[in-house]
Structure formats: structure tokens, C-alpha cells
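Q: Is it fine to ask for two folds in a single conversation?
A: Yes, each is treated on its own. Send the first.
Q: Here.
A: Result:
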Amino acid sequence: MADPIELPASGNEDALVDAIAAATVGDAPLHLGPGVHLTKRGRRNLIPIGAHGLSIAAQPSGQEPVTIRRPDDSIDLGEPDWNFGLFFVPERPTPDEEAQLTWRPGSDAEGPIEFDVIIRGRITIDGLRIDCNMDNQGLAPSPPAPNVAEHSTMLGFRGRAFTLSGPGEVPRRIAYVGFESVELTDLVIENGGFSGDVWISRGGFYPNIVDFVVDRITSTPRVNQKRAALDFSGLCRTVTITRSRVASIGLEHTTAITYDQLPRVEPDFVPSAWRIVDVATDGVDMGASGFVYEIEATHLTTRRFYYVDRASGTVSDSSLVVDTRRRMNRLPGFEFHRVLWTLPPDAGGHVKGLRPTSLLGQPCRVAFVDNTFRAPGATTGEILDSEHSARPDNSVDVTALGCTYPDDFGTDPARPIARVNERGTWRFAQADLGTLDPDVALPKHPEPDVHRLIV
């Protein structure tokens, strides 16, 4: 590795991107001097990163904070979308890399292809303030269009597809190039909103980033709540988020094609593995088409919402506040251990319960072990809810053992602990119910395919 490139702060919007280009070509760390470094205005600006990768950090001797900032009024209000701060993509394959490609059959949205995947390059960004500066772009706090500027991320990352066949050649030959890893550490992200502050976008293959690591990230309140502070539209092979205080975490649903149907590195699909440890956030909103990701979270705190769709995994030793989205949608196997749940009621005092939900014949299997449930101020409603769905192949498997429920639930038909309506098996601990009448605390649908067990 070459000697570091030292970049002093300046008002020049080209200085930072030019230094990044020099650093990745020369395999040199980029050290930023104290003060403000501006990104370059413009739509769809992409920064190619080669096999050497990229390392950006504050100069070791810097006393004043080092800030990367989007310039004021740099978003084109006539075309406010796709105005990036810094968006990193892999460079085109080199001739040597092209010569080593091994073509495999596959398909994309346009039809049959032959493809291969190149994974290379590590990106690290450490010890900086990242000023999205979305409050100085002329975008109203309540935009006239709900999706205005939603892709104008401050920090973006994705893989890239390169067509290597000639016009009209069949099948088309595509080389997919992804990053080996992206690591963000010890960052403060401020003045975000409208778009994802950090966005992992789609690359058209899986995984377009192998390892994505976040550690010691703090994000300040956002000027607009659209999208998420850590915003995933593409799946990484592993995602690790630790020791962080971020505004929100989001994984976007996709409907056109599921991740396990994309061209991929490994012969067999391996689900994306998420590890979340010691993270506080306003909320988690995660979903992906197909059953393609697994979560292991501990010491997770949400302040406003928690929603996970079609995931397996475990959450333990955590405190989760949920909003009106209470469905636990098609969880193929999820366990909550020692979780404190807070279910706020609506303005009328009605609380909507968590709702294990089976759809399209795909079951929901969820277990609550040693959980505590709160519904402060609720006068009606339930802690767990369900409906007897029309499809006979829908079913749930729900277990609640060692759980503590609000004192005023389970004695009044208007406030049961659970409405046991969906097909399948519901298990509750007798020790948790005490002297409560199961028919009041756990009213059951009369159909014989609904099984309520007191164990």
C-alpha cells in the first residue's frame, strides 16, 4: 500500500472525488484534514472503485472534526431524484479479469444470459461526520410528492453489471462485479432525510456486497422520515450492525424477482445473515420477497416501530416498541427471548395485538419465551391477535411460555390475552395464566383445525 494521500479541507467540490479516484488507483489510504470536505453536485454521479478498494479516514492528528458535506442547494429541484453525495460502484473488469471469466447460464429481466461474478475491493470509512445537509436543499419538510428525492442518498454502494457481448449476440454475456466488503465505523450521520442516508442499492445479482459492517454509528434526527438511515434495497451476504444509535434500519421489499432467483456467486443460495448487537433506533422495518434472510439480534431497542416480514431468526434481551403494523407475516421460524414489548393503544384506548399471519399457504411459526408485554392506557384490544383465514392451507404455530401480560388483560372479554382464531397450534403456559379462565383470556375459534394447548 502506498503512502497516504493527505487532503486538506477546501470549498472545491471536485477535490474530494478527485482524491478518491487517486487513492483507489494508487492503492493509497485517503486521510482527510480537519474541516469540511464537499461532495460534487450532479445527478447519477458514480465513483468507480478498483480492486485496491478504498480507505477514507480522518487524519490521525486532526483535532477539529472532519466532515463530508453535501453542498447547499446542490439537489436539482427540477429533477430532485438521483442526486447523490458519494455513490461507490466497482470499476469495469480488467482485460486480465475478463480472460479468467467462466460463463454460466442464467437469466435476467430481459431473458437468457451467460454470466460470471467478480468480487473484489474493500471500502472502509472511519472517524468522520457525514452531513447529508438535506435541510438546506430547498426541499420542503412535507414534500408535495411522497417520493421526492427518495434515491438522493448521501452514501451509496452497489455492485454493477457489465455487458461484455456485442450488440445482438445471444445469449448476452454479463459480468457482475461486487464489493468484498464495506465497513463504516465511528461515524456521525446528520441532517438526513427524504432518501436513505446510507443506501445499499441493487446490483442485479447476489450478493452485490459480501460483507457490510456498521460499528459505532450515530445518526441524528432526520428532517424527513422517508426511507431509512441505514437503507437496504439489496441483500448483502452478511450484515453486522453493532454499538450504534441510528434513526432507522430498513430492508426494502422486492416484488419483481426474489433474491434467490438472481444470478449469484455460490451454486446454492445461502440466505443473508444479519447480526444486530447493542443497537438503539427509532425503528426496524425489514422485508424481502422470498425467505432469504435470517436475523440474530440482541440488546436491540426500538423507540417507535418494529416490523419484520418473512424472516427467520432470534431476538433476545431487547425492548421493542411497535406501531400499528402488528403483522408477523409468514415468519418461517422466529423466536423472541426475554423481550419487553410495548404496544401503544390508539387515541380511543384500543390496542391492536401482534398478529402471527399465514399467507398463500405459507405458515407463520413464532415463539415468545420469557417475554413481557405492556399496553399502557389500553381499555380494549388484545396482546396477540389472528383471524381464521379463508385459505385452508394457511396455518400458524405460536408458542408463549414464561410470559408476563398486563394485569388487566385476560379477565375481560374486551381485553383478552390472545384471540386464537387462525388454524394451527397455539401453546400457552398454565403458570402464565394463573387462575384466568382460558375461554376469556384466550378465546378460540370453534373450528376443529384451531388447536389451543395449555401446557
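Q: Second one now.
A: Result:
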Amino acid sequence: MIVRVSDRVEPGYSATARFFHWLVAALVLLMMPIGIVMANANVGPAQDVLYHLHRSIGVILLPLMLARLIYRLTHPPPPLPVTVSAAQRRAAGVVHWALYGTLLLQAIVGWIATSAYRAPIWVFWMFKLPPIWPVDRPFSETLFGVHRAMGFIVLVLLVLHVGAALFHHFVLKDVVLRRMVRG
């Protein structure tokens, strides 16, 4: 994929990379408010539905992030425009890899915490995942705290990621965002 900037040609992301990016973004942006609302909702059927949705999306995100990581490792992203400074390149790399790692680890921590609590993990009410940890409520509560903290870390990383993309698009007026939108 090619994005033209004046008389230079800048490479864009592949359709596969864009698919992974936007699907993960949509699921994370859906999951975060569900997680916040469910944690603060009154105990009852509505809260149960939110927990099931949150867990179901997490079950989808884990293999999706693994596939995305494998794709990223086997298909390096296009180089950033030459106008992007070395410091910005390092910052972009740190934020991207932190997002990958945190999202993967958060899903695993959520699964272990839910297993240790012994809450069922129904996937969109179709099938149930097996527990992967023995029952241990105190350990589960600790891990749920870690899971919540990781959610705030993901939020900060997303703000940095989206903020940088918008800064490049609206202030610097370069092709950084367009590479992920149009390829």
C-alpha cells in the first residue's frame, strides 16, 4: 500500500494489519466501559450480563492479540516517515509494545483471576471455558486488582497512542494516521 506525500511515496499498512488494528481497537473500546460499568453496577441480572459480555470479549481478544503479535513479528510495519524524530520513533515503539504486552497479559490475568474465583466463563452464552487455576478467592481478589490496574494502564497507553496519531494528522499534517486508515 502506498500513500503519496508531495513527490515522496510513503508505504502504508497492509489490509491484514489494518484489520487486526481496528478490530482490536473496537473490542477494547467496547470492553473498557463495560468493565467500568459492571464493576460499579448493583448486584443482579444486569451486572451478570455485563460480566458475561466482558469475559466473552476478553476470550476473543486473547487469541486475536496472539495472532496480531505473530503477524507483527512476521510482517514488520512500514517505516515511519523520515520527518519523525528518533525520540518519537522510540516513544511509538514503547507505546505499541506496551499495548501488545498489556492487552495479552491482562486477558491472561483476567482468566486466571476468574478461574481462581470459580466464576463461569461463558463465551456469548454458547460454551464455557474451563478454569485454569485452582480455587483461591484471596489470590483471585488480588489478581482482579491487578487486572483493574492494567485496565488503567491500557487507557493511558490508548490516550498516548490516539493523541500521537491525531497530533501527527492535525498538527504535523503527515501521513502517520493515514497509513493505518487507508493503507
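Q: Anything structural to flag on that second result?
A: Two points. The first strand starts at residue 2 and ends at 5. The longest helix spans residues 137-172.
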